[in-house]
Amino acid sequence: MKLTAGFRRDGLTRRQLLITGAGGVLWSAMPHLVSRAHAEASQPPSVEAAKAEGPVVVWHADQEADVVEFLRIFKEKTGVDAVQQRLLPGAALPKLEAEFRAGQTTGDVYITSDSGIMENLRLQNRLLRYIPKDIDAYAPEYRSAEPGYWTTYYVNVGPMMYDPRYVKKEIAPKTWTDLLDPQWKGQIGFQNSAAGTSYGFWFAMKDVLPKDFWDNLGKNNPRAYASSTQISQDIERGDLKIGGRVSIFQYVKSVRNKQSVQAVFPEIGVPAVNQVIGIFSTTKRPNASKIFTEFMLSKEGQFLWNNIQGSYSARKDIHIEHLPDITTLKLRLPVDFQDYMRPERRREFVAIWNKMTGL
Amino acid sequence: MSVLSEQEAQRAAFARASAFDLRPEVWIPLVLLAGTLGFPFFLLVTSAFNVGDPEAFPAKVYGVDNFIALSGHLDWIRNTLVIAGGGTALGLVIGVVLAWIIHRTTMPGRKLFELLIAIPYPLGPLVGALAWSQLGAPRDGLINRMFGAITGIETHLINIYTPMGIIFVEAIFEAPVAVLIIGAAMQRMDPSLEECSSIFGSGKLRTAWKVTLPLMLPAVASAALFMFTSMIGSFAIPTMLGTSSRFYVATNAMYVLLQGYPPNYPLAAALGLVLICMTALAVWLVQRVLRGKSYAVISGKNYRPRQVDMGWITWVLFAIASLYVLLSLILPMGTLLLASFQSSNAISFNFPAWTLGNYKYVMFDFPTTQQAIINSLLLGVGTGVIGVLLATFIALATHRSRSDGRRLLEQMTMLPQAFPRLIFAIGFLWMILALPLKLYGSLFAVLLAYVIVFLPLAYRGMSGVVVQIDIALEEAARISGAGAFRILRTVTLPLLRPGLLATWALLFMVSVREISASLFLSGPGTQVLGPAIFSFWDSGGMPRVSALAVVQALIILIALTLVRSMANRGAKV
Lengths: 359, 573
Prior knowledge:
The complex is a heterodimer.
Chain A: H1 2-20, H2 23-41, H3 47-53, E1 56-60, H4 64-78, E2 82-86, H5 89-102, E3 109-112, H6 115-123, E4 127-128, E5 150-157, E6 160-162, E7 188-191, H7 196-205, H8 213-219, E8 223-225, H9 228-237, E9 242-243, H10 248-256, E10 262-264, E11 270-280, H11 286-297, H12 299-309, E12 331-332, H13 337-341, H14 343-356
Parallel strand pairs in A: 1-2, 1-3, 7-8, 7-9, 11-12
Antiparallel strand pairs in A: 3-11, 4-11, 5-11, 6-9, 6-10
Helix pairs in contact in A: 3-11, 4-12, 7-14, 8-14, 11-12
Chain B: H1 2-18, H2 24-48, H3 65-70, H4 74-104, H5 110-118, H6 120-135, H7 142-151, H8 163-186, H9 191-199, H10 204-215, H11 217-232, H12 236-242, H13 250-259, H14 265-290, H15 313-340, H16 357-365, H17 367-400, H18 406-418, H19 421-434, H20 443-466, H21 471-479, H22 484-512, H23 516-521, H24 529-539, H25 542-572
Helix pairs in contact in B: 2-14, 2-18, 2-19, 4-5, 4-8, 4-11, 6-8, 6-12, 6-15, 6-22, 6-25, 8-11, 8-12, 8-22, 9-10, 11-14, 11-20, 13-14, 14-18, 15-25, 16-17, 16-25, 17-18, 17-20, 17-22, 18-20, 20-22, 21-22, 22-25, 24-25
């Protein structure tokens, strides 16, 4: 409730701006857009209509090559065209905000590593509800409370990683507090504070690890990277000893490439975040968006996507080669979702993380 | 009668002195620029002083907390100044030396070197940083691997992930601009001034130092200003070489502040305002240096500057030029080529394991590439044409007009250079969404942003040329009865022609390699090469991003060759 009120307050502020410009006209069109979206939400998608709508635009922050490959297969299987745009949350959300205000949206489907952001969008009535046929294959913790707004399309588990060519197994960290050993000074890599997975890691582990863990970790001068690909790359090249939290698919990709990288899953728990998919309420291609979501969450789509990427599906009936059995891992997902979404909590994380990584 | 006339004349003079004489050639571009820049600037200022909800727009609560918070990050500003200052100094040395070698000496192969030296700039900082991260990485960099293999020493020879490494890469990839700007001025110089110096007994180096260089001051200052402001706003090199080694300048800090959620606009905007102040200070300093001096080196005669035979030193100069080409072109492109054949991130010399699959992927399997190539070429041509026309008009207005407000126009024109492009892009996005025209999502919107963003560069290029043309030539034509259009066609434009072509080429290059503004403005259907490569660097792995960078380089080389051949044909006509 508090959050909803907060967003309404922001909306009023922004509307004032719109009124000073050309926004009044667009504002008057919003009720039509929203009602159209609600009407469309209840309608099952038509493949013919989807083809006529043109390519569905998918906003994401995943590995671009993986998304492109998945979209290619999607088109092959369904006949519906799709294009992608890679946008990290900091770029995606201001762009989305601007587009929503002006009523000139370009994105249709949004996939993100930050389920808190997606839940915020739901609270702002910016998501179209569509319940895919396979929704029951997803446990409640992997979908929005009211099913159909957003659903987990993969579970991003984040172990530590190292390359035994450069770090001997005997001295490699076994648990998170081993990262505090001064021998790793300047040799630990994390994604920067812009990554939803970094937030998920901090949030999931903040009550498990000692209170001063992050300050002490900061003394070891960890390095910040824009993506887990870059961390993995530097580990492979020997320019970084330890990946402090690396997305699991980097490990699978390394194994597939016959590299010697090792993943460490501490017994105390390994952080994981839900990577979620939703449809914008202003989509201009509702049929194509629904077909895309349906395909992504289907058994076939889940196998294809997670096999391409090397990640865990939230479905129990999908198994991907080279991934450790998920039931043997002590996963730490964000449990207190209301707290996870709080802007104050995010700001706290950003301050801690930036300080830790030297920003 | 004569007393009355004198009084009238005095009154008229007083009226002229006291009236604000703003003429159309100044106020029209002034209004257009103010309109286009006003909104992003308004966004920047209000955000910088926003101490309430960081995402509220416009802000409700104002204060200076963000600047106080910024005082805790003075290292960002200090590092920015170190990189921009050091990079400019090194780039300027490279630029002056190379321009002089190419245009004023008899060194063999000058034409070829002129072409080779120009190439690193359009390849861009992104390609430079990418290549040097593979050449100069402490453990796995090719140079360090070779050093280790030859000497057996395990310590690295160079580490590119350091402030010195960043300065080095900035300098070698920005230096071609200095060569272009200074070289263009050198080609227009009256050789009799140098001849005088020689007659009075000065040696070749002393003449170069005492006569040639001072005459080049406007061009040198323009080049320095351009490089300094470019490096203040430089994004790709600090991001790719600095961030992972905990080295933050304003731009890579701002990128993280803006990319995270919630984005910290206020702190980023406060940082942006500081950058604007730093740039404004640089512009003011350059104006102060040039004020009250005449730099007209083109007059009624047509000169072909004398080229100096440096004797045995010629071969030293040849070695210097070759070293630059090696460091800025051959090694980086060779490394990218090597990396593009690999199947993993580490470069291996196991030839049977090499693959062309990365090229197949980026050219045929990756749908963004083809569209990005076409869009980037269109934007390059469009930005070049519109930017050159606009910049020429403004340069003529600021240097030829007697209107008031010329300085203001110049400062307004230079303002976008001070805008961090990431922030400008957000403000610009808001502006085009607010316009009644359907610009959003179109290539034209990106074109418009490019023209604004690169206007300072175009203006600096054209201003350096206009300031050197003696107004007496135009006045002579006027006295001979030529009208304004005829003067423009037969006198001004022919004299400006080399500058026009050089500036067009420059705009084409910077547009093709642009990243930071495009990150926000390009979208499905309007993808361009810079963000495509950056995104691949972010998530695609070294072999594929290297292949894409090589493809981009080839496109730029082909385009440049075409442009040069067209320019040469035009020159013959």
